[in-house]
Amino acid sequence: HVNGLAAGSGVRKTHLRVFAPPDVPEIESVTTGISVTKDTPSKVASCETRNGFPKPNITWYRDGEPLMNESGRVNIVILSSRMSSDLYSVQSTLEYKVEKEDKDARFSCEVSFFVPDGIRTIESPSVNITVHYPTTMVELWKESPQGLVKEG
């Protein structure tokens, strides 16, 4: 509302948009090993970001490649909450059906959020998981007479 005295007064409305970039994402991997023999996806890691507005999004990556929900292979669970400050916290859990090749894979999460001039992202550090898989090659040695035991 503006009052210009003798010139008169005027009233106009505007829409104020406030953006709050979220905190850096915190990633935590499963510390126990994950077996390749399990039939369903296992929890690999969780990722959390806090204090963002509007609500931020979390994307998971395996070796830099984005992961999407895939029945029987990848399951991403997302929980979001709005705090009393009207800022959002988002937590995501990655469940993944591991294979032997995942023993050297690096998993990470990325938070994307809106700012007045577009979308920004913050990536978490990457984590590695311990993968348990059956032995692929066994050699048996006998002492007497010396030598390898022949298969069969």
From TrEMBL:
GO terms for biological process: homophilic cell adhesion via plasma membrane adhesion molecules; regulation of Rac protein signal transduction; regulation of wound healing. InterPro entries: CD80_C2-set, Ig-like_dom, Ig-like_dom_sf, Ig-like_fold. Keywords: Disulfide bond. It comes from the Eukaryota. Residues 25-130 form the Ig-like domain. Signal peptide: none annotated. Pfam families: C2-set_2. GO terms for cellular component: cell-cell contact zone. One of its GO terms (molecular function) is vascular endothelial growth factor receptor 2 binding. This is Melanoma cell adhesion molecule. It comes from Maylandia zebra (zebra mbuna).
